[in-house]
Design a protein that fits this description.
Helix content: under 10%
Distance between the termini: 59 Å
Largest sheet: 8 strands, mixed
Shape: elongated
Order of helices and strands: HEEHEEEEEEEEEEEE
Number of domains: 2
Number of helices: 2
Strand content: 35-45%
Number of strands: 14
Structural class: mainly beta
Length: 185
């Protein structure tokens, strides 16, 4: 082990070997990798003994790991409080293909038909505009994208014929009335 290397650093290897120092949390929050080996006493007292702080969001919140646990913890400065943030280091890697979430089926508001990938739909957006396109993301069906399912909310994504992406919120398993089912291939 190199001089000055923290004993927990090897657990962070999947993050540290990447070129980019940007991470994405399960809540789609952006983090920047920065090992904090020498923190001021004022900040260090907020963390458990032996903790290694390895990322921050630029707003005073930090991600850290502790011995004898594989989970990633977070220090929220507003509390201040600490909590488990995610289960493993791999959960922080952006652009990783993840399995679909456990979100239940999504239905169209008017027809009650179940929304599937590839459905041809008409979408009303920005008050006065309409467009037609294909459904490209369905919560619970598509590989999980954190920006589409976070904080207890979920969206269905439609790619219009002109390439515009429209995200429509799902409430209680029902897609907004602004998305109208036309046909399925």
């Amino acid at each position: 082990m190199k001089e000055g290397k923290h004993s927990l650093e090897s657990r962070l290897e999947p993050l540290l070997k990447r070129r980019s120092r940007r991470l994405q949390g399960p809540d789609a929050q952006e983090w920047r990798v920065r090992l904090e080996k020498k923190m001021s006493e004022r900040i260090a007292r907020d963390f458990p003994p032996g903790a290694l702080v390895f990322a921050n969001n630029g707003y005073g919140d930090y991600l850290f790991i502790v011995p004898n646990s594989s989970s990633i913890n977070v220090f929220w400065h507003e509390g201040p409080e600490t909590a488990q943030y995610c289960a493993t280091v791999e959960d922080l890697l952006p652009n990783v293909k993840r399995p679909p979430s456990a979100h239940g089926p999504v239905r169209y508001a008017k027809s009650q038909e179940i929304v599937t990938i590839g459905d041809y739909v008409e979408v009303k957006y920005y008050l006065f505009f309409k467009g037609r396109g294909r459904v490209t993301y369905v919560p619970g069906v598509s590989p999980l994208k954190r920006q589409m399912e976070r904080d207890g909310l979920a969206w269905v994504r439609v790619r219009l014929e002109d390439g515009t992406l429209i995200d429509s919120i799902v409430l209680d398993g029902i897609l907004r009335k602004t998305v109208k089912f036309l046909k399925r291939d």
